[in-house]
Amino acid sequence: MSYVHQIVCLANSRKMSGRCVAGKLTAGPSAGTWIRPIGTSATHEISERDREYQNGSTAQKLDVINITFTGVANGGFQQENHVIDDNVYWTKVNQVTVNDLARIVDTPVSLWESGNHSYSGRNDRISVAALAVPRQTLYLIRPEDVRFTVDAEGANFGNPKRVVRASFTYNGQVYALRVTDPEVEQYYKAQKDGEYPAEVNYFTISLGEPYDGHAYKLIAAAF
Questions:
Q1: Among 101, 119, 139, where does a domain finish?
Q2: Which of 49, 76, 84, 148 has CA atoms 20 to 30 A from the CA of 167?
Q3: Is the domain of 212 the same as that of 180?
Q4: 200-209 burial string, b = 16+ CB within 10 Å, else e?
Q5: How is 47-92 classified by DSSP, letter by letter?
Q6: Count: domains in the chain
Q7: CATH number of the structural domain spanning residue 95
């Protein structure tokens, strides 16, 4: 039987040919709990049609949305995943501001396990071997000392495409994570290669699906 959850959208990030959407429940005894709507395809991304409202516009960050689901996703370590009913339009019922996020911010001690670094990242991944049981894989945090970089960081490995990454400090730990927020990516890719200090109030951090033996920590949204 299908059911409806209302969330405030805290991520609308790039994933494969679609988006990864996530947010927190707005009401009821589970208010503040994370939900990640996933699509019905094998790779689970949310298509443009999936996140469409009846008037033809599409879900955006900070929208308050009613979404119809068919069930909780089985398997995997992302405990927030619910499968959408892709025959039902999403409904926008409200919109919040960045100032409203102060009451729903998360305060984890750390962004999961530390000490595992990719070539260009810092504390940006976890071995799949450490992800045997479901866990929380989304946080809304207040970062400090944020700097965005844009660079073709894979050029030495035959990939000339430019990447946006953010370095920041959280709870005394330094991170350098890939950015998958399309608005942020577009802005910094329009700049020259380099490093850009920035004032950021909040990041939504997502622990993504496994890739080549690791799950990567991603900046799914910046506010």
A1: 101
A2: 76
A3: yes
A4: bebbbbbbbb
A5: PTTTTBBTTS-B--TTEEEEEEEEEEPPSSSBTTEEEE-TTS-BEE
A6: 2
A7: 2.40.50
